Amino acid sequence: xxxxxxxxxxxxxxxxxxxxxxxxxxxxxxxxxLPLAQLYTQTPLNVPIHVIHGRRxxxxxxxxxxxxxxxxxxxxxxxxxxxxxxxxxxxxxxLAVPVVxxxxxxxxxxxxxxRRDLNRSFPGSExxxxxxxxxxxxxxxxxxxATHAVDLHTxxxxxxxxxQIRADLSNxxxxxxxxxxxxxxxxxxxxxxxxxxxVAEAQGIPVITYEAGEALRFDExxxxxxVKGVLNIMHHLRMTGP
Length: 242
Ligand SMILES: [Zn+2]
Hints:
Elements: H1 3-11, E1 17-19, E2 22-24, E3 28-38, E4 44-53, E5 56-65, H2 73-82, E6 91-97, H3 102-106, H4 130-141, E7 148-153, E8 161-167, H5 172-181, E9 185-188, H6 196-202, E10 207-213, H7 220-236
Parallel strand pairs: 5-6, 5-7, 7-10, 8-9
Antiparallel strand pairs: 1-2, 3-4, 4-6, 8-10
Helix pairs in contact: 2-7, 5-7
The protein binds zinc ion (ZN).
């Protein structure tokens, strides 16, 4: 590397990141309230998006949880991730969404008010059902900005899943992310009509799903493995140092 190259490398700085009109400067973090839809009472449904924007350019990693409102482990995984010191020296941008289905989370249910499943509503539409609108806004405003994605889930009520990754392993970048996450069970899975994972895959965004524990319960080992897994992915993508 010549000295001028080295100088360019040092001076390489990220541009501001904009989300829904909010400008996030390099080296700062902002919580953006994103209006996803209105309930039938006209009550706005805002979803907080944590934008942690590194000083240097790099991947844009989306980490989302509770798209099924009763799946809690991912909410705690993101809470711990947001406090982690490695985010202070970030290359690229982390978009962390602790609760996508805010309605379901409040009501301790997987579903939306009309019993629709938000994770079967993608890509959604601008003028469809509540679920379709939420999916559409989330896809166009958040997912479409990401270069990589991790969606955090649990098993069902009274059915705990061993910590596992589900991903389309025929995509090399996705398979590398699945391996980097670092849990023993990786399932090759391409199903999922209308899921966040399906639309991300369709538009070429490497995406993995982490499923661990059961709904409505925190499980410490699943949470720890999830935090470690997301940090492993960030390291794998060179967003964080050794
Ligand atoms: Zn789920």
